[in-house]
Amino acid sequence: MKHGTDSLGFLLHDATRLVRRRFEARAADLGLTSAQWRALVHVLRAGRASQARLAERLEIEPISVSRLIDRMVEGGWVTRDADPTDRRARIVVPTDKSLKTFEEARDLAEVVYAQALAGLSPETRQTLMGALRTIVSNLSEPGETPCSLAHDEAANVR
């Protein structure tokens, strides 16, 4: 295993950063950041989600999720409803705007993924995706649902 900028960690980080940057550039007209997109995918997948659950799924602090959701509410992407079972909790619910925009944002993401994978044969793409799934599986805690599964399930959100 190489160390330095050719290491697995650096390459994964750089690839993720560049995909995120390209998506944000393409999705700017939608008014949607990559962080908002990730949150929206989780909310749409669940139909509604508590802010605490979103913080857990996005692996960010609850205060950061609160700020993110504040911006999403301002943008008309989601609403906050009172949790009927816990008066202290707020449930994040997708709006019609997010449902209508989901397909367009997903299509933008697919264009970025296609750019990222350009020049790789179908066999190499399949090998890469399989290798990444194995890495995710190897490093996931027992009972944990990796975010990659959330992405696969998000493809079925309609």
Short recap of the structure:
With 158 residues, the chain is mainly α.
Describe the structure.
Helix content is 65%, strand content 11%. A 3-stranded antiparallel beta sheet has the order 1-3-2. The chain has one domain: Winged helix-like DNA-binding domain superfamily/Winged helix DNA-binding domain (Arc Repressor Mutant, subunit A, Orthogonal Bundle), CATH 1.10.10.10. The model is unreliable at 148-158 (pLDDT under 50). It contains 7 helices and 3 strands. The chain is mostly helical and 158 residues long.
End-to-end Cα distance, whole Å, is 42 Å
Strand proportion, as a percent range, falls in 5-15%
The appropriate CATH architecture is: Orthogonal Bundle
Compute the CA-based radius of gyration. Answer: 17 Å
Q: Low-confidence segments, ≥5 residues, pLDDT <50?
A: 148-158
Q: How is the largest sheet built, in terms of strand order?
A: 1-3-2
Which structural class fits the helix and strand makeup?
A: mainly alpha
| Dominant shape | globular
Number of domains: 1
Order of helices and strands: HHEHHEEHHH
